[in-house]
């Protein structure tokens, strides 16, 4: 009796595996297609029949992309922009989330509601005024203000993410028990001590999760970069480069796909390394109740 | 009188102290939000009511003309507006059902969950630009596109190659398919987290009654995941009004704006035709729509959001 139950359970697991593998394979068709075609060599016409499965391993497209003069520039910019933005936005949002979660001040709820409200706005409703604000920040050595500069892009990136990140982390800070901060207060510590000694160490999973989501978001950001720094060749980022490759060499798909895969690798690695530690639960926790 | 004064004074003092304590934490965020989010939002409203010449920096008040022009200016706006709603109606159910279904199956695996978590999540972490490039090629008009080749030359279900991305409904379908494919993994990850909150005892009790995987899914999992489903739904519906890159890269709104979407229209008006007033009006119309939808969903589904909790 018990053995037959175990047997049927094993069979169930195997069937489940088989089904999920099949589903995942179908689901992965676009990726397989991309990888396969990055090994192809395209001339002026697309190959017939189109190839789904790789039948040769040819890395010359990758070599070509890596040897392009502009590729290191795009990688450098994407890395610097993403890292600086993530650092700034995580630091600023963690601080302000603590302020909104743990310190009582008049108008707190109103300001927080305003933050929430901005989250509902279409993502690039504000791009035109943002462009104007950046252009209006005049510095003697810049012709167009902060347009076309790294600083300008990072400022806008960071600012547009403060509301969402503050919202996410505030819920987390609220879920921590009061007793922790009270004991610090009793010892004569202020909010600074509570934040750095108690809250920050406890919130590493939440902050970490947010950091990864933020990294991924900024790494692939296209539209804001296109509008704010698109005209400055030195500021090109990977998504901008990909779109340009597509426009310039419409038939050289192997280059486009090879560059796409190269751009994807960092995010995939990051996700695989951290996926077990992510607390996605925090995202829904306390934000929506049924 | 005196006590009232002191009470008020005390309150003021307490308020000021609260601000003093909070400022070091919230000030950097507050400045950035004020300069790059709130001020631009107000400015957008102003531009939407004006004629704005960006080069000269001239701004002339027009009243509601931009809105009138957008709403009356041909069918393009209405196609775009319709398509945003259609996108939400078509993709959101698939994303929710698919995400929930696969999360449930993966959660029932004893070994190897990680492979599927990563596998189904890959499209989410892949940039919209890259995904659009792949779909562009897959939906290529000629026999060279994977979909055409497969349907005509392999399966023989169609006689002729279809220029998918040049026609209204097949173009929209490609945009929808991409949206479903790209977002399902996100829903799955959220559902996987939600599933951790369902107590094992419920399942065990059902098993004693002889319920299989499917019955447990329908009678325990789906109802228990309701809060998660609301969360996914609200997020995805708001997301449906932000559709942009796939439209730009797959169809460019062709034919004649019939596959367009609001954000694409906004982009086109602003950065190709330099009609910033109309572009801002479009942005505001979609903002109002999103706020209204969120409000209705909250009411209908009796969502408690954070404000009530706090």
- Strand content bin of chain A: under 5%
Strand order of the largest sheet of chain B: 1-2
> What percentage of residues of chain A falls in helices of 4 or more residues?
over 70%
Q: Which segments of chain A are poorly predicted (pLDDT under 50) over 5 or more consecutive residues?
A: 281-290
Interface with most residues: A-B, 105 and 108 residues
CATH topology of the largest domain in chain A: MetI-like fold
Rg of chain B over CA atoms, rounded to whole Å, is: 25 Å
- What is the tally of helical segments of chain A? 14
Overall shape of chain B: flat
CATH-derived topology of the largest domain in chain B: MetI-like fold
Number of strands of chain A: 0
Which radius of gyration of chain A do the C-alpha atoms yield?
Answer: 24 Å
Low-confidence stretches of chain B: 304-310
Q: What count of domains describes the coordinates of chain B? A: 2
Mean pLDDT of chain A: 85
Count of alpha/pi helices of chain B: 14
Name the CATH architecture of the largest domain in chain A.
Answer: Orthogonal Bundle
The CATH class of the largest domain in chain A turns out to be Mainly Alpha
Series of secondary-structure elements of chain A, N-terminal to C-terminal: HHHHHHHHHHHHHH
Please name the fourth-level CATH homologous superfamily of the largest domain in chain B: MetI-like
Count of DSSP E strands of chain B? Answer: 2
């Amino acid at each position: 009796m018990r053995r037959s139950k175990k047997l049927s359970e094993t069979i169930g697991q195997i069937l489940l595996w088989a089904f999920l593998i099949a589903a995942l394979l179908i689901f992965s068709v676009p990726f397989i297609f991309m990888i396969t075609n990055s090994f192809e060599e395209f001339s002026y016409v697309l190959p017939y029949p189109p190839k789904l499965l790789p039948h040769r391993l040819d890395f010359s497209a990758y070599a070509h992309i890596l040897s392009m003069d502009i590729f290191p520039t795009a990688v450098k910019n994407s890395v610097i922009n993403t890292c600086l933005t993530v650092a700034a936005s995580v630091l600023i949002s963690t601080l302000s989330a603590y302020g909104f979660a743990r310190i009582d001040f008049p108008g707190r709820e109103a300001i927080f509601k305003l933050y929430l409200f901005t989250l509902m706005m279409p993502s690039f409703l504000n791009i035109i005024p943002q462009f104007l604000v950046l252009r209006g920040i005049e510095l003697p050595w810049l012709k167009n203000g902060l347009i076309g500069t790294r600083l300008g892009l990072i400022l806008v990136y960071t600012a547009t993410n403060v509301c969402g990140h503050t919202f996410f982390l505030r819920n987390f800070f609220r879920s921590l028990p009061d007793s922790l901060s009270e004991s610090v207060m009793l010892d004569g510590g202020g909010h600074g001590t509570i934040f750095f000694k108690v809250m920050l160490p406890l919130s590493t999973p939440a902050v970490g999760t947010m950091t990864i989501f933020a990294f991924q978001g900024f790494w692939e950001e296209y539209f804001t970069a296109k509008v704010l720094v698109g005209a400055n060749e030195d500021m090109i980022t990977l998504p901008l480069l990909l779109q340009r490759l597509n426009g310039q060499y419409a038939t050289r798909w192997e280059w486009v796909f090879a560059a796409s895969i190269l751009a994807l690798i960092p995010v995939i690695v990051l996700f695989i390394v951290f996926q077990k530690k992510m607390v996605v639960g925090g995202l829904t926790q306390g934000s929506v109740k049924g | 009188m005196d006590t009232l004064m002191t009470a008020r004074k005390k309150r003021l003092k307490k308020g000021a102290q609260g601000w003093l304590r909070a400022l070091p934490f919230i000030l950097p965020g507050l400045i950035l939000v004020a300069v790059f989010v709130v001020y631009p939002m107000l400015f957008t409203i102003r531009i939407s009511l004006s004629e704005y010449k960006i080069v000269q920096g001239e701004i002339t008040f027009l009243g509601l003309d931009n809105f009138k022009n957008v709403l009356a200016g041909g069918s393009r706006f209405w196609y775009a507006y319709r398509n945003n709603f259609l996108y939400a109606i078509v993709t959101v159910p698939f994303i929710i059902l698919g995400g929930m279904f696969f999360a449930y199956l993966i959660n029932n695996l004893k070994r190897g969950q990680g492979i599927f978590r990563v596998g189904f999540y890959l499209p989410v972490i892949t940039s919209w630009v890259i995904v659009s490039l792949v779909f562009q090629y897959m939906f290529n008009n000629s026999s060279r596109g994977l979909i055409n080749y497969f349907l005509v030359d392999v399966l023989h279900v169609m006689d002729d190659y279809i220029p998918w991305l040049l026609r209204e409904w097949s173009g929209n379908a490609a945009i929808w398919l991409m949206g479903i494919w790209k977002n399902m993994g996100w829903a799955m990850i959220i559902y996987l987290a939600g599933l951790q909150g369902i107590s094992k005892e419920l399942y065990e009790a059902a098993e004693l009654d002889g319920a299989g995987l499917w019955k447990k899914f329908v009678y325990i999992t789906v109802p228990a995941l309701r809060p998660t489903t609301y969360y996914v739904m609200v997020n995805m519906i708001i997301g449906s009004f932000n559709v942009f890159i796939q439209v730009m890269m797959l169809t460019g709104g062709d034919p004649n704006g019939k596959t367009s979407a609001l954000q694409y229209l906004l982009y086109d008006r602003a950065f190709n035709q330099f009609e910033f007033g109309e572009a801002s009006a479009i942005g505001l119309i979609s903002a109002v729509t999103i706020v209204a939808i969120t409000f209705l969903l909250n009411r209908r589904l009796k969502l408690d959001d954070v404000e009530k909790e706090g």
